[in-house]
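Entry: DUF6266 family protein
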Amino acid sequence: MGIIRNGANGGFSGKAGSVVGSSWKDVDYIKGLPRKSSKAPTQLQLEQQAKFALAIQTLQPITALLNDGFKGSKTTRASGYNLAMQHLLNNAITGIYPNYTVDYTKMKISKGSLIKPSDIVMLVDAGVLQLSWSVLVSKYGAFADDELTVLIYNPVKNIYLPAEGALRADGALDVPLPGDFTGDTVHVFMFFSSRDLTKQSESTYAGSILVV
């Protein structure tokens, strides 16, 4: 049974006959009930399903970070997670079905108008990831107090490790890594956010590095 909201002229939620009413971000939607198909999926459908499953597996654990990372670049009602998903599906999945993989060099965790991190140098010493970057400060999108966000991904453990604690002007940050990361190769992403978190830079793939 559907429930009418805001009187006869309002939207409704729930099932009513062959349609379902719902709302997302104050926009009312009506859609038909899905119909089961007796047809076997086509090769193209199988490929798209496999890519979509890989994209969800990759991005779902960092949904909150993605919603923040794309906050300043959103021009639609789509969430940051959905924008990251769209970019990943269109640009960063490689391979031949069913053996798809993610090309982390093309994956984005943020987008925006600030100038992104550049000239990044990475070292690992005694389980500590040492990062440095160019201290480029300008009134045109590169401010001394822009806050750095680092995302470290260990594909062997399937663990994401976010880190903060540095400003653009600092030029360096040390990130202690878990002891069980030793011997694993990790992927590192970085982006800047304005102090009030309303603007972000496009993320930079800093590279991969072996943890020793």
